[in-house]
Amino acid sequence: MAEPFLIIWLMDQVNSDNENALHLRTLVANDNLQTYHSWDECIDFITDIKEISMKIYLIISLSSLTEASETLINTAEELSKIDSVYILCSTASFPAISSAADTKIRGIYTDYQSLVNQLLRTMSIERYRYRRFASDDFTVTAMMPLPIVAVTTLQSSSLATNTTTTAKRQEAEFMYSQLARDILVSMESSETEMLEFRRQQYADNEAQLRFIQEFEEYYESCNAIFWYTRDTFLYRLLNKALREQEIDTLYSLRYFIRHLHLQLKDFHSKQLSANTTAENDEIVTVYRGQSIKNEEFERKIRHNLGGFLSVTTFLSTTMVKQLAAVFGGNGSEVDKQSVLFQIDIDQSVNKFPYANISTESVFGEEAGEILFTMGSVFRILSVQSAGTNMWYIHLKLTGEEDEELRNLTEYMKGGLDKFSPEIHLARLLFEMAQYNKAVNYLNIAMQDSQLMEDCIVRVYIYNELGDIYGAIGEGDKSAEYYRKVLEIDLRHLPEHHPALMVAYSIIAVMHKRDGDLEQTLFYYNKMLEISLKHPEETECSDADSDYKNIAVVYKKQKRYSEAMEMCRKALEIQFETLPHNHPSFSTTYQYMSELFAIQKNYEEANQYLQKALEIQKNSLSPDHPDFIKTYKDLCLSYYKLDKFKESLECMKKANELRLKHLPAIKHSNADAANNKFQKRIQEANELLEVIQQREEKSTPADND
């Protein structure tokens, strides 16, 4: 594989560096080092290079700083093909040159050995980076060995200097990643299970198979950090899976994830204990450099001043600012911003384990590597431009969180605490609308014969499968699992037991499917009576759902005022018992909107749909299928209010989400459905363009 860099050495005419150049040729491939004594010849060579992705490291030897040499350095700064400049000179201080924020100068060295040590480190980093780009596809780009920052914050105001309180929010995706992490870390696994899975994956990759064999022979949990920092599938797979929430990959790596997290936690505790009180009061500053896609940078960093930056991966940083700057790049990529993060660590914040891993890392102690565990949260203190497409971002490790999201996270943790970790994970995946994966983990749970001996477990799993298959349009399978629940003898249980409540709910649903609304009401009212009779039983505190279910039946019976009353009662209970951003609120608001629309109160209907949408944005992932109905209803609502532009935008969003979820949802003719959704999106775009053109024509010309 060709090297991704080229070293060009412009030698001093007075003090020849030929001997050092010969030494450097023994350290790098001969074709990767070019030497020149003439600046003009050097420039001609650089400008003739056609390979766009080739990084050029320029070494300039100077006997002293003169006006001519300063001009030469400034010219090197301006040449876009030059990535980094290293100066070898007996005079180490060039304040006019090295103080610039966006300088390409990576160091001014008085001796050759110091320069070559830094250059070799940079080359090693670039090799890792090149290999990573060659084999992996990134949504957010970073440079090895530092893992990708997966930034998770809500959209903020358009100006960094005028950030509203909404910028202090964290996305719901971060909550789901934390819940998944907690479940995975609690799971038991074995090295054999993990390695067998990887051997199957890398059956045709001799290099990785050799690494797997080495891992099997030498790995111990006490050196998880060392194995993490090596350039192998462990690093690449783990951070990509954490960033993109690839649950199956994370599940297969849970054995290693648990060890890495616990070793980092142990290091953190020991290092703080070893410090004096004065040392623990000090602020430690570390750095992280990487390039970030323009849209992501604009939305989640530049316009989120004062907000949170949350990291779903393990996050590696360095105490060496100059080293981090190498990872950040020089702003030459058009679609990305080069970012250098300064991170201040208040050592009194112990919520997120981090540790100095220099003694364990493959990269040694010179890098001063500080590794943060999954889920660390930082506050964005400042965002400063450092040149074209280059930024200096000041962060602070914080124990603060989005309070509303924290409350919702804690509430959902309680709902996931059922039976086995695989069942916990399946429940979480169901909430995330990853239905097929949820079925997979329920199937894994059902392979545990001892677990399945418990009739309560069987009720829970069969009901969950019935709900999942119902959500993806497979009614027959849904009914099959619901019937399995009803076949289980539950007569020995008290009336308020959750398993009996599940059975009553299934009976009500089946009566509703058959059109028997009176029997449906009978069972929903029975459930409501039990819920209100046993409010102290947390597992029976679903009176809000009972009220909503009754409201749906009343609506079908055209008893609209009674249906609205049931919705209001559901809301009262939700405000008393649920975090105010819980998804259940959005369902209630949607029901109320439908009732207002039936009564032709379109303004009120639209307002409640807006409330539902806001709750969903704060509690669901951005592409959750629940948004489809909300946008579809908003499309109609705006149309009724003669707001055609807003109606078309909602129509477009609804159909984009339908397309995204089409593979998971059963359709009698998927191709026809795909064409229909594509056509609607195209029609919406065409009409929106017409509206925009009319708006532009109707806008008075600026006569000033």
TrEMBL record:
Pfam families: TPR_12 (PF13424), TPR_8 (PF13181). Residues 667-694 form a coiled coil. The keyword DNA-binding does not apply. Keywords: Coiled coil, Repeat, TPR repeat. This is Uncharacterized protein. TPR repeats lie at residues 459-492, 544-577, 586-619. Transmembrane segments: none annotated.
